[in-house]
Amino acid sequence: MRNYVAPVVFAAAALLAGPAFAQFTDKNPITATVTGATPTGYPRVMVEGMNAIVREAYPGSSVSLKPNSPGGGVLAIAEKEADFTATATGTEVKLALDGKTPFPASLKGKFSYVMQLYNNQYIHVMMTKEWADANGVKTWADIAAKKPKIRLAINRPDNPQTTIGGPYEMMKAHGFSIDDIPKWGGSFVLGNSSTGLDAIKDGKADMFMNVRNLGDSLIKDIAGNRAMLWIDGDPAKIEQAAKVFDFRMDMVKAGTYPFLDKDYPTVRQWVGLLAGNHVSEEVVYKYTKAMAENVDAVKKIGGSMGAFTTEIMVTKPTDLPWHPGALRYYKEKGWVK
After folding, report:
1. What is the C-alpha separation between 219 and 249, in angstroms, rounded?
2. Is the pTM here over 0.85, yes or no?
């Protein structure tokens, strides 16, 4: 009798332990919703491109986009309304963990890190030469000292990475805040970067603070018709601003735009893919694997993703823990200990 009990016990144990030791090497489809991208523009193109790569790697998968904002995307994965968000930066991560605006309460323990998508998101801080000359402004320090009337084109605070995590901290590092601008008689044009550049082009704004890809053609076109300047600053103060949300200071090189006669400091941001902690290890593992094993296809998405590498992918500039599915794949590859 004992000759048969042991195999039965071991078989039962194997069945119970089976899911924990699943290898996820199959091509079975997955179902996932990716959010954080706006309905139009590059973020949508990026997410649709990523999802297409995953669907090709796992035929029959249902991987779709649910449009949202960067901040709204983090909230959605925390509340199980979506599985991944693809436009999060250190700003959204820290504000969400701390439960600070635009998040109503701390989301700690509800989402995890999957991968870095790119680290080349530069905050652009520009002003018209006409306005700068009229007010004697060349630097952030000049703005703080002279308190000029500014018509500022900037994003809404519910898009934290291009406001709270960039320009707001740059202002603070130089001794003033976003709230001082109306006190100086200034006003705002609130909206995305396209809205802001339209305002500059149409003479409805004096200053622009938002994100664009370096060497942006629209900025070059505007500068061809309206003289522009970059707001200069102390690199140490820009670094101080950048560190608040786990970013870095970097220099925008001379010649990047026709009006850049030297290198200028700004905040360089990273953008990452996050997953809700409710998402299964298998789903995150397979999404991660599809991206890692199709780097050339990821690069062909273009824009910021054109620089994608597995080295960038496994860079984690935040203390947010890895999602178990992503960590499992990286450990298998020997990329993360």
Report:
1. 21
2. yes
